[in-house]
Amino acid sequence: MNEINSSQFADAIKNDEIVILDFYSTECPPCEALAPKFEALSELYGAHVKFLKIYRQDNRDLATELGVSSSPSIIFFKNGEKVGDILSGGVRRADMQNQLDELLPDQIVKEIKSKIVPKITETEVLIIGGGPAGLTAGIYLAQAKVKTIIIDIAMPGGQVSTTHQVSNYPGFIDPVNGYMLSHYMTEQTKLAGVEFRTAVDVSNVDLIKKELIVDAQETIKAKKIIIATGASPRFINIPGEKEFKGKGVSYCATCDAKYYHDKEVVIIGGGNTAVEESEFISKFASKITMIHQFDKLTSNKEAQERAMNNPKIKILFEHEPRAFEKNGDKMVVQVENLKTKEISKIETDGIFVFVGMKPNLDLFTDALDMDEWGYIKANDEMKTSLPDVYAVGDVISKKYRQITTAVADGTIASIALTKELS
Question: What kind of architecture, by CATH, is found in domain 249-353?
Answer without folding.
Answer: 3-Layer(bba) Sandwich (3.50)
